[in-house]
Amino acid sequence: MVSIPPLDLRTGMAQETLLRRITNRIRQSLELEDIIRSTTAEVRSLLGTDRVMIYKFHDDGSGQVIAESIYENRLPSLLGLNFPADDIPPHARELFIKSRVRSVVNVESREIGQSPARDLNTGEIPCEEILYRPVDPCHVEYLTAMGVKSSVVAPIIYQDQLWGLLASHHSQARDVAEYELEAMQMVVEQLSVAIAQSNLLTQTRAKAEREAIINRIATLLHSLPTIVLQPALEATVAAFNGVGGRLCIRHNAFDFQHSIFKSLTECLIPGSNCFQLYVCGQQPIIPNPNIYPLLEQYSVWQEHYKSGQYSIWAIPDIYQDANLRIVQLVFQPTKIRSILMIPLHYRQELVGYLSIFRNEIDTETLWAGKFDPDNRQLYPRLSFDLWRESKKSQSQKWTDEEIELAEEISKHFASAIQQHELYQQVQNFNENLENQVHKRTLEMQRTAEQQQAVFGVINKIRESLDIDTIFKTTTKEVCQLIKSDRVSVYKFSADWGGEFVGDFEATSPNWFNESKLGINTIWNDTYLQDTQGGRYRHNETFAVDDIYKMGFTPCHVDNLEQFQIHAFVLAPIFIRKKLWGLLCAYQHTGPRQWKTSEINFISQIASQLGIAIQQAELLVKTQQQAEELTQTLNALQNTQTQLIQTEKMSSLGQLVAGVAHEINNPVNFISGNLTHINEYAKDLLSMLDIYQQKYPKPCEEILERAEEFDLEFIIEDLPKSLSSMKIGVDRIRQIVLSLRNFSRLDEAEMKEVNIHEGIDSTLLILQHRLKTRSESAGIQIIKKYGDLPLVECYAGQLNQVLMNVLSNAIDALEIYRKYPAEDPKTGKITISTTVEVMNDNVKSAVIHISDNGPGMPEAIKDRIFDPFFTTKPVGKGTGLGLSISYQIVVDKHGGILKCDSQPDVGTEFWIEIPIKHIVISRRGEAFGK
After folding, report:
1. Entry pTM
2. Interval 671-692: pLDDT, tens
3. Would you tell me which of 78, 411, 507, 522 could form a disulfide with 499, CB atoms 3.0–4.6 Å apart?
4. 473: region left, alpha or beta (phi > 0 left; psi from -120 to 50 alpha)
């Protein structure tokens, strides 16, 4: 342990000499860096310790060693290193501030002494006695890791805040005398004075520099009659260490009609030319096309300053403000992160925006060892080796001094802009006097030209009686002649709502409408509905130059803003004395002052448009009546066809059923008696056999009689004949049953039937046409039946469809079979059935009937379902079979009937019937009908 000599005359003189040197240094120099560097060396020399350093606190509670003096490298250097805020707990900071306590730590004895410079309660200066107590083990380990055995710390207070610490470290255990604490206390008090003087010097220099910047910029601005804005902008950006900047101001914004300047908001409406933009350095990248080509036109700035309080908006990080999402998009391609938005206002009137940009920066902090904040209270620091902490893309905050400078600069910019605007106003007044005569002459010429244009538009409208062509011609011509953004035709409905039936939009890069008006757009205006046409019923044309100055309800303004309508003219369209609709001219790019000549022009066109619509509607009505007559005639033809076919099939069915019934009775009689005759024959033959056995030698007369009618042949042939008769009778009964099944007169209502039985019955009736004949080969029937359930249908009508399709297939194959030399292949008809699902997820029975006949070309295939169309010779077909079949399948059963055919390949018919009956609401559309 190092002992401290008691305070004697020599020690006291050394202490006074130290304080004198420090005081002189403070008086000689106001540079704080020089003062603290010499102070650490003098204090270490006085105390004789290994290291003396000055530690300065940051705003976040952490701190940095800004000066140190080390004796012969006995302890490692900590100069420039940062320490986290956790190293000094809050209670210790409170003691440093309130009691000005000095802290003494002896690691070897594990004691900590505290000597307050003032009483915590009374504020009085107590005695210099050091009061010791056991030190926290964590604190001991912390100092040990630093290589320190003895530590003395005195707080540096500036303006009642803890500015920093004066610390003395020794690598060996060492006692601390009270006079040493007294000396350190005097040093920190002198340092407080030096800090105050240095801050005053810094403030004075900053003020002088700020005034120099303001004077330099003001000199550039106040140079009428010309104003030099670009150099002033560049100087301003440089003054704030920015990477870019923008100056957007009103320009030529004086309204001669009302003798007022347009507001900055009006000037920044897309399409306006009453603003001027200056840029410097890096800029945001605005995507193209964009409804807002300028950053200053984004609504976020207008929303921020709509209250009329034009304070500077300092944005340290644009990506931390949710209200700046739209602005973030244009800055993402750049490294710009901070914005200083400076509103330029003169007498509470906004005349422009000055914006300064700063890039993001990368920071590097030198820490005294890496630390874990989560474990700071549990474990002491184990190492104080240098650790570099790098942070990427950090924002640069705007200081209060920079904001004050911006406020001063904004005043000079606003004043210069206002003076320049007044100068421009005088110049423009002089130019306006000269332009008035020229303007009036042009207006007279323009009126004559517009009158000619009216006649031209009327002639073009009358060239056509097509309503759509009339609308297209009118909207296009009017839009181009009056140079409007859009012209539309609006038609009223029965409830005085309505929709747009005509529209023409002018091409313009100055606006972009996400929800465009257009044809079929419905717009129901409650005012028009409540008043049944409102002012337009009285043939009044309504012109609006600016929707925001008309006193419209907020709801009405919102509706207009939805379609970006800023100005409009509405002229009524009358047909006879009835209000039909409106001719609408819209301005999207901004407000527009409609001229009287333009309003009259629109009104005249609206009147002529009403006459053209009336003529077109008369033509349409005539065409509709002609079409209705044609449809009625077609319906009558179809009805006649159905009646003929229905009567034909009814008569045929009755005939077939009657014949089948009449045949059935004798056939049943013969079939029943054949059984008895067969038994009788057997009995007689058995009796004859017994006679032959009992009387093997009959008389001569019997032998002659037996030989005469060949008894042996009769005995052998009689059973065979009876058997053949039985087969014939069964065959007749099957044919009769098939005829009855085909006629289905007892099944006129819809019921569940077996589709396969209907197919087999039809084939049985047509069997005579399938057999081989002398002039042609037979037709092979291939059945591929699936597992079909019972199908709910009109059985007789469905059999009629099968008969028509199969008959057509046989007709085609018979024509094909007449030329066996050209095509010797066998005629085949393939019938397959499956269960599938229709479009509406309805299960259906599907029947495919295909043949390998000659097929049909596309032109014939498209007409095969038309009534009275046939390719057969005269007398061979009526052309009604497939048309009736189509009506049965599609109209009565809600199914599908279509045909696929290729020449020289064959034809296939597709019949699809719902398994369960569905209600038919319209004709099927699957077949191109």
Report:
1. 0.44
2. 777 777 878 788 888 887 888 7
3. 522
4. alpha
